[in-house]
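Blinded run. Sample ID left blank on purpose so nobody reads anything into the name before looking at the predicted structure. Input follows.
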Amino acid sequence: MARYWSLLLPLIAAVVNAEDDVEPTVTNWPPSSWPWPNAPFVTLSAESGPISAHRSKPPVTTSFTGIPSYTYTISESVRPDSTSPASPISTANSTLPECKKIQYDFPAGSGGNTERAAAVKEAYLFAWDAYSKYANGMDDLLPLNASGTNDWYGWGVTVVDAVDTAIVMNLTDVVTQQLAFIQKIDFTTTTYGPVEIFDTSIRYLGGLLSAYDLLNSGLFPNTYDQSQVDTLLTQATSLADKIAFGFNSPSGLASSNVNFTSDTPVYGTYTVAATNQTYNSTNTASTGTFILEWFRLSDLTGNESYRELSARAESYLVNPSPAPVYPGLVGTQFDVDTGDMLTFDGGWEAGVDSFLEYTIKTYQYQETATTTQYKDFWLQAAQSTVEYIALHPYGFPGITFLSELDVNGSITWSQDDFSCFAGGNLMLGGKLLDMPELVDLGIAVTDGCHQTYNTTVTGLGPVGWSWYNASNLAYDPLRDDDTAARRFAAKYGYFIPEGDETWASRPESIESIFYAHRITGDPIWQEYAWQIFQAINETARNSIAFATVNNVNEPFGGSLGNSLDSFFFAEVMKYLYLIFAEPEVVNLDQWVFGTESHPLLVQCGIGAIDDYTGVTNRTNGYVSR
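Blinded prediction complete.
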């Protein structure tokens, strides 16, 4: 999902006429029980910097049934420097609550497609073999010149990020190779400078924990060296103990980076243009995307420090000060010294995406007093989404997009591909909370993202797009007289701003299609996924491996980019494979996916595999390779 804030579109502060901010009341969606109010009037000042919204009328009170008034509290004693090991917690079947039914009940023998699953597996092996040949042990493969690069600290991020996909695909020879490599990594040191701890956590730590859970679940073949399997948790702990120094900030919010030599946080900065005041800052998604993996690590090791550190950081985000323009839709920058929110650019886009994603997923993972508060906050964000930012482009009432907000909290009538995870996240939350209206919204959002795939020349989606509002105007006035944008939008409902034409191996639209398939059982989603897979093979595949595509609206992508990120293996390949695999493979009733598509065992009663207690030899019908 979500999430790589360095790729955010430029944030543009603008004064927007209130009349242009209003979207019409829709008639086809949402259901009549959900009134869709107009956005409140927002007074903006270019001189004063980020400000709170002033409302010309009382705040809208319409809400989902059962959403509580939200105030977050935390009582844990937090010790930023405490990472001492503890004995693992034993979890017995009788202590775990019953699992919530999330996945569609596919009739026996339905829901999978063996031939298509095999085609996706072949694509994984094609790319993996190229990595092993040209970049073995390095972080990433460069697919245009058959070489490698160490852009993620030289620990072999492709290996760690890709191992759980190989486990799910039952590529036992590949997994054997990967486990042997992982056992030898030294996560305590790097020669490549300060470590960016957000991606390090979701890619490396998430990959290690997922592989550990999958191999110990009893649901997948495990004929591997058990010492290497055990090392997965040891390595995760070693890495987390270094990342933990990033939480040693004045507020407890995680820093952007950590110096692994001095074990000190390294802060990012954010400057308010209007005042020229610079703050030590952290990105919302960066500091808010630890709770799922770190709660799991605490449960596996018995060391509560990981839970406490990540929960303390999360407490600022789910109780933001000042309040966001729309409840739950926090901005992308927080002050690490005070914990205050610095910007009002809320939504589901890069920079805030995986923070929202984890507030409901951590509740799915384990229902506690703390995670229930996360769930309540997520519901507030979902409510605001319905009321203010789930919009329809001019002339296309059947298409739903999720608008980003600018730094002042104004609607921009634009969306990035990162936010396409929201469709699946809304469907997941809707099933988890018995709210079919949210499932319907998630389907609509996923359909909107798919629209940006099946209407381009290549069949691949851009990294971002915009549309004309209810008054047929764009956020950027220059686009109002853009003939090409007008013509494209008149035909498809959106246009692609210059610079956003790239397909960068992003998984988010495929991710939501996976959730739509597994939650609704509608075979149309498998067809959508197959079309995207064919487009990837047709456009992004070269004689070496796969690459990024520079322009989705040119034949064959115009040209290719020289990168194959590890998330291509971790997310794109995994989600595509699981769409065509038998539905019991990584069942959503039993597993919760991290933002890098690393499944972790949900802490609920799932019969034979309650947290490794009473495991079976069931292997989902796989035959070892």
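Unblinding after everyone has recorded impressions. The two ends are 30 Å apart (CA to CA).
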